[in-house]
Amino acid sequence: MLIFFFIDNVMCGTKVNVVETQNLTKIYQSRQIAINGVNLVVPQGSIYGLIGPNGAGKSTALRLILGLQKPTAGVVKVFGEDMNIHAGHLRKRIGFLPQTGRFPPEMTPISYLDLTGRLFGVPASDRKPRLAGLLHAVDLLQASSQKIEHLSSGQRTRLGLAAALMNDPDLLLLDEPTIGLDPEGRNFSIALLRELRSQGKSVIVSTHILPDADQACDFVGVINHGKLIYSGSVQEMKQLTYLNTVELAVSGDVSPVIDNLSQIYNGMVHFDRPAPNRLKVSFDEKADFGIQLARILDAFSQFEVKLVGIDSAGELEDAFLKRLAEDRLKGFVRAFETTQLPDLEEESIDIEINKQS
Amino acid sequence: MNKQAMSPNVSTFFVMLQYDVSILLRSWIIRFWFSVTFIAGIVAIVVSSYYADDTSFLVSWALLLYAALGGFVVLVISTSAISLEFSFLGDTLISRGIAPTPYVLAKLAARALVILTLFNVIVAPTAFIMQTNAISNDMSVFGIAVALIYWSFMLMVLVFLGITFSVIFDNTLVGVVVLAVVWYGGMGGLIFIYAPSWDHFGVLGNLPLVLQGKALFSEIWTILGAGLFALITLPFVAVRVFNARDL
After folding, report:
1. CATH of domain A243-312
2. Which of A64, A85, A131, A172 to mutate to test the interface with B (most CBs of B within 10 A)?
3. For the segment B21-42, what is each residue's pLDDT rounded down to a tens digit?
């Protein structure tokens, strides 16, 4: 899917990648490897979720993209230009919501948003109405004259969101935007992301709350111990876990359907009932997915079961956990196989010799 | 100047300058020090109107006290300028489209502007009122002007040093202590080397002569040259150190 996106957006010359990193690496002075050789591509107009466990390196990745930290190695390009601490002109096109929730403590939401707008170079005529509109949108009008140090963590997150939108940015970097928010606030944030995407904005959102990423993101990158272990569309990631599996929403008694089909398929199709009105069907990888599904639907009509809906059976959380487990396993395998691994250099020389001969 | 015509770095410099000046005007240290020096200025005028001590001697002591006590206020204000903001600097200021150079320069300019205003608004009128009202005046207008310029330069160098330390040390308290050792150690060292005696004439040195308008031009240019060198060099050091940091 990413390849199609690339062909559509880059080859046709309509859109570009807003963020590209090449071999991005960050090692802190304490010798902690925060980011390790990350190659990230974020297409314009998409919502890209950086997901990973706590301490995986998501926040560091965002700060590197914003130029607040210097990479130990590698390159960050934003809007096609090199990003670094001096690139204030690029940051003027970016909205950033930090995770820390720290602001100048003596300021009020109004004075801070006004300062933010002035730093971004928003003209005074646009600044005041936008400031009022954003305070209203994030439900901070009541607290707009209080000192920021007296705001709750949820209110600070919402203030950060308002500040990130003050410049009407082309790219938004959101570090855990739903953390500390009540369900209404979370829904608002997710709806906002979708609204921004519909306006053609690009968003990179780091989160460890996977249902949020599932609801909002087009693409996800899984970071673990500083390494990007997966990058692709959300659907592809789900499918990696549940290949050839669908979940059917039904009305009616599906027990006779299951009995009947289990006898016919004899192990080629597996049925599971996660809820009384839902049927999870897993096909053998060798089976023709379309034909088998058509047969099931025929059986439904035969036993007067009504099909209400078809969903992808995979959950992002399952896919994420599977990815992490695979990565961890790879680590163990590498650790134990080091003595048995063939000499890669010798092997590559052999291949070259064979090719020449 | 038309704001639209300004380059982005210049406009962010002025926004940061205004932001920092507003912080300083709300600072209780600034308000306290302004009140103390205002009262001290009135006391100095009253004393010079009733006592026969030479005004150059009185003003010299006042300036020396300003360097010692006011120096500490300046040191605290300048050393806390950036280090107090490190916890939110990257997230809430630099991320909003600022490059480090206008940020650091705005801090230098704002702190220097406020400190110089605080000093000159009190000390200059006090010195000139003493010159006209005192029983025994021996100061000249030229002498007062030179002394004020010397002290303004000294305070600016201290501000620039403080902000450079503020970039180097995350911890404000450590920065204040290190700079206090450098500043007071340097002052004590100079007095120890140059003072001919440990009485008040020795400690004041040539300052009363400067106020009397008897400063040598070679001395004036040497002091101004050294001050200028520090004022030009320190911003480069501060910006360079700041650029090397992760925010």
Report:
1. 3.30.70.870
2. A85
3. 999 998 999 999 999 999 999 9
